Amino acid sequence: MQIPHDTRRALDVVVALVNTAPEGDQPDLLADVRALRTFVHEHAISDVGELGARDLAGVRTVRGKFGQVFAAPNARTAAGLINELVATAGTTPQLTDHDGYDWHVHYFAPGASVGDHLAADGGMALAFIVVSGEQERLRRCEAPDCRRAFVDLSRNRSRRYCDSRTCGNRLHVAAYRARRKSEQEEVVHGGGQKQHADHP
């Protein structure tokens, strides 16, 4: 699937944001303004001023909406959520080539809050996926103790885990051990039956 660089980058930020939400044993990774500052810095989110409690609340709201898009049962539901996101953000597309990047589109309005910034750029990136008929690529890890969000960009839409080297390998190892245990129990059980038959 061909995705423009700026759309791919926005999707990466969407996924990272969704995965800050508390899930299972994982605490809220956006617990305070300091955590929000770290998130903004790590993901090089541009045009962000001083951050405060209001920004934190706004970003958490956007995070919840993004999470709902990943859980949407169909494209119509996802589209409704995305339309709400970009409308609330006051989307204002503009071309820019800031910080050495080639020309790309920013969808957030100049001076927008970080929440509106994420809602606009992330919402339009998600819109690209839905318009392309690829909503099923918005997935949650199938590892029962994980459930992290990811975008499946594999050619045949076959990716099942957020990270094949961690969750994927862990489940494959667990499945292998379960098969080995089952085979060993079958051998022991089968041997017992044979012994019982030989010695009535």
From TrEMBL:
InterPro entries: ABATE, ABATE_dom_sf, Znf_CGNR
Pfam families registered for this protein in UniProt: ABATE (PF07336), zf-CGNR (PF11706)
Span of domain Zinc finger CGNR: 137-180
Record-given protein name: CGNR zinc finger domain-containing protein
SUPFAM superfamilies: Jann2411-like
Location of the region described as Disordered in the Swiss-Prot/TrEMBL record: 178-200
